[in-house]
Amino acid sequence: MAERPWGLAALALLLAGAAAAQEAGIALRPEDRARLGALDASVGQGLRQALATGDAGQVDDAVTALRGAPLAADRVEVAALVGDWSCRMIRIGGMLPAVSYPPFRCRIGTGAAPEFEKLTGSQRTRGHLHRDGGRWIYLGSSFVAGESPRPYADFPAGMDTAATETLPDVAVFELLGPDRARLIFPAPYRESLVNVLTLSR
């Protein structure tokens, strides 16, 4: 099994942001604070594995998913995000150097904390986008098609993640332009070191 990028330094990166999250009314599980704090470590380890052992196509998919500088969070207008998106999942590191899936359908709803949902495919996610200090984060639930997602707030701290397919999802949401965005899921509980869900329309 691939080594998980935990560590005191990674956790410290998010402690300052935790206060901002609490002010915004976002109750982050401690494990998810740690995962968000490990984002750069997860991306770095995943890309290192892809570059070391992946073929040219796998490397290209991984790099392309992460290419591009995001807009500043305060420039993201929620109204501009609303609607249907084409989305594509790229898993990087872990069981495989990188693996890409065909396009799926995703949707972003309205509201101060807009709902995000991956609508197609066997593995789904549903949750909400939240302002967290100087960035947007996604808090949701991964689940298998045909099952019901679980509200993020209902996931307890220290849960046994090996016992269920319905798991807490946490990601950083980045808008790259009017018609491009991505969600970066650090240290997911299954298969990979980092997942990137690219959005386009």
Q: What do these coordinates show?
A:
It contains 5 helices and 9 strands. The protein is 27% helix and 33% strand. The N terminus is likely disordered. The longest helix is centred in the first third of the chain and has 16 residues. The chain has 201 residues and is of the alpha+beta class. It is globular and about 40 Å long. Helix 1 crosses helix 2. Strands 1-3-4-5-6-7-8-9 form an 8-stranded antiparallel beta barrel, surrounded by 4 helices.
Keywords, separated by commas or semicolons:
alpha+beta; 5 helices; 201 residues; 8-stranded antiparallel β-barrel; disordered N terminus
- Strand arrangement across the biggest beta sheet: 1-3-4-5-6-7-8-9
Overall pLDDT score = 88
Q: Structural class from helices and strands?
A: alpha+beta
Q: How many alpha or pi helices?
A: 5
Distance between the termini: 36 Å
Spell the H/E element sequence: HHHHHEEEEEEEEE
Low-confidence spans: 1-24
